[in-house]
Amino acid sequence: PEGGVLHVHGNVKDSEEDSWLENLTMSIKDFALAEGYMWKVSIEHVEQVKWYAPHILHLVAD
């Protein structure tokens, strides 16, 4: 099979949302490469689910 979507949750400082998304993309690519796969990884959608605490967002990335 080819393709698929990962649904990743995270609690992130509101000022670090962009860096979290970049790190998430690179971490998934690195994991795949370590297993011998050359995955194309992109963020298709980000949902701000709720505030977890002051300045901490609960995010979901697909």
Q: What is this structure's SSE topology?
A:
Blueprint: E1 8-13, H1 17-34, E2 46-53, E3 56-61
Antiparallel strand pairs: 1-3, 2-3
Strand content: 25-35%
Shape, per Cα inertia axes: elongated
Side by side, the strands of the main sheet go 1-3-2
Unreliable residue stretches: none
The level of helicity is: 25-40%
Rg calculated over all Cα atoms: 13 Å
Overall pLDDT? 96
Count every beta strand, where a strand is a DSSP E run of 2 or more residues: 3
**Largest sheet features:** 3 strands, antiparallel
Termini distance?
Answer: 19 Å
- Total domain units: 1
Secondary structure tally, helices: 1
Structural class by secondary-structure content: alpha+beta
Along the chain, the helix and strand elements come as: EHEE
